[in-house]
Amino acid sequence: MDIPYTFEVRRDTGLTNGKIGIWLFLASEVMLFGALFASYILIRTGAESWPRGDTLLDVPLATFNTIVLITSSVTMVMAWASLMRGRFGTFRIYMGATILLGGVFLVVKYFEYSHHLGLGEFPSTNNFLAVYYTRREALEDESRVVHQSGRALGPLLAFRGSGLDLPLPDPVSSVGRP
Amino acid sequence: MTSDHAVDIDKHVRVYVTVFVALMVLTLITVAVSYLDLSIPMAVTVALLIATVKGSLVACYFMHLISEKKLIHAVLVLTAAFFVALLLLPILTVSDGFGIDR
Prior knowledge:
The complex is a heterodimer. Chain A is mainly alpha-helical. The longest helix of chain A has 33 residues. The radius of gyration of chain A is 20 Å and the shape is flat. The two termini of chain A are 29 Å apart. By secondary structure, chain B is mainly alpha-helical. Chain B contains three helices and no strands. In chain B, helix 1 packs antiparallel against helix 2. The longest helix of chain B has 33 residues. Chain B starts with a helix and ends in a 7-residue tail after the last helix. The mean pLDDT of chain B is 87. At the A-B interface, helix 1 and helix 3 of A face helix 1, helix 2 and helix 3 of B.
């Protein structure tokens, strides 16, 4: 059975079903991260003392990874814009860059983790590190990987058999179309 | 694809580039602030403020929320309300002092 309103907009919602679906998914992720933020606030406010983050973490490395993430957001949205212009070749370059940047992020994380583990800094060492490994890192990395592969697959699958001129079902990136 | 449409997208791309530059600048400001010797509450406040601006830029322009339909906004407002409740509940259970032996 086909999913209704994949390409065509539903008149009552003014949206495609896929787009509503992806936003509901994002809403559920907000709640997932909300639980983690709530536990972080409780752990931190309940702690006797809390180290300054920059005494334990590498600020330049974190800055680099932030730049990688921001750049990957831009390449993603540029990939979408390329599709809207019907330029599939450019789309592939931007999408490839997005996936590559996702990989760069993880490789940097690998070196960051192995550095900490080499110093004997485990999640069990203290609450700061427990939060560092679980909340900030593991889940965000996980969601990065899931999102980026999802973002890559979505438009590619949509293209299969649908032809370039159909409106794209990419749910998150949708600007007013003529 | 009409030419109007292409012009429309060109306009969007210019916005994306501007937002990209803004995000980079804000990231550098966050890093610069981390080298100032601010008190912890001050540092957290500044970091969260900048992060809020950055997050809003990404949501509004990269995720196109600024030109989104009402239903999506409604879903997100509801999510925000539950998110706040989720954050407040455990904090209230501790701060109201009930059931805690001191």
